[in-house]
Amino acid sequence: MSPVIRLGTNSWFATLDLTGARDSMRIYLRPSGRWRLTGLFNFGEEPICCLSWAVLRGLSSPAFAFTVGGGADWNPSVVVSRVRGRWRELPFEAPDSLGRPGLPTVVDFNHMQDGLVELEDDGSGAAAGPETYQWYRFDGQMFVPSAPLGASAVCSKSALGKAPRIYTDSASSYNISRFACLDGWALASGMLRGHHVFGLYEQRRGAWLRVGVGPTLKRGYATVRGLGSIGFAIPQSVLRQLAAQI
Questions:
Q1: Is 26 within the bounds of a domain?
Q2: Residue 122 located in a structural domain
């Protein structure tokens, strides 16, 4: 059960009910006087757990997140809040780990902090990662990409050239000619042993990490020895804007 969350004159709390034939989450509101049930989400056989909560930018009611199944290499979760008078699952402009069309509501959730939501992606399929991450803000309709919390990494050829590698078998160096940065990511182009390649970088804690270097990074995936073709947490909208600048 969440603690009581107070916003203005209203109070809220949520609880997970795992006792029935179908697991559910119940949300209660107390505008004044007695508590009343204001939101109910029912689920099938998949277990639900791990309730978290936050006050997010762009929402007048608290947001609640909870896990719906999962495994060692991902944490499929749903974020819900009240939008235009109704409690609903909120969509993300994010890569869909389940491969379904449209905007996903089941996402690989990491945590909520300072009004934003952070998702993760373990493209390698290995429980130990490595993982990449993306922050999101709610724009009134959906969660859209946002810059990471904290100080921004310097967007320069020098800073990208010094970035440590996430995958150890990635090329050690290449000649960067053009680059662009947006919402915690950078995409660069250059030459490696006479071939045109792209480098993808992720910002964490105010510094760059190099995700990979290769001919396919402009399309958001890379081929890594022993893992095959892997994807990352970068949204396609961010990747398209970066690619258009280089």
A1: yes
A2: yes
